[in-house]
Amino acid sequence: MVYRVRHVVLESTHALKVLLPHLLRETQFLDRFLEEAKLQARFRHPFLVRVTDIVSEPGIAGLIMDYLEGETLERRLSRHRIEPSRAVRLCHQMTAALSYIHTRGVVHRDVKPGNIFLEEVTGQGTQIRLMDFGIAKVHMKEKTRTAVAMGTPAYMSPEQVKGARRVDARSDIFSLGAVLYEMLTGRLAFDGASEYIVQQNILAGTYTPVRELNADVSRHLEAIVDKALQVAPGERFSHARSMAKQLEAVPEGGLVGTLW
Which DSSP string do the residues of 63-120 spell out, in sequence order? Predict the structure, then answer.
């Protein structure tokens, strides 16, 4: 549960993310929650949500975070798809956020519209903020002892679906490809009547080509989506910067490489 709160001394506004009471009794959830706090407290990047403090007392665990004005990409997509030029800009910002965490040995593992906040910044327009590192994994310290699929079904990489013990930055690239697909088409790349069917479509790489759903998308941009959504990790972009460079060459975006 997330609350809007005000510091009684500083009179500043923050977001307070509190672990639900019934989850406090589950050691794995509490440990993961506190691990999220440690991860985000180390981050200093304009496209990531900062954790500035932690509340940890008997019966309560909470994270103090930046308070943002705007809405999630999920909510925006519930109304309409995103025009290609804007989708390219937002995705370009996401590659910067992912590159930052990946170079620090962190894989997010749950990149999806619900974890991407669209912040309205005065004089700068819309900026993304990547949120929720609750299931992120730090490569240097393997926390997952068993092969368990973790993530949100429609955006999970094939290796996540298989419950692989180790997933790397290319898993986040796949998920970002699924998000870009949805921004451009207004539809999930991988959908089905059940979670099992969704997972089988992911493993088979079965989805409707972007340009069949939106003819305004260039072949170059469609090719970027297709490369990000390759089933084999080795066939995807090797890192977020590689994807960013291709986005900078897309005619819809008009981007220059200013984020690096």
Answer: EEEE---EEEHHHHHTT-PPPHHHHHHHHHHHHHHHHHHHTTTEE-S--SGGGEEEEE
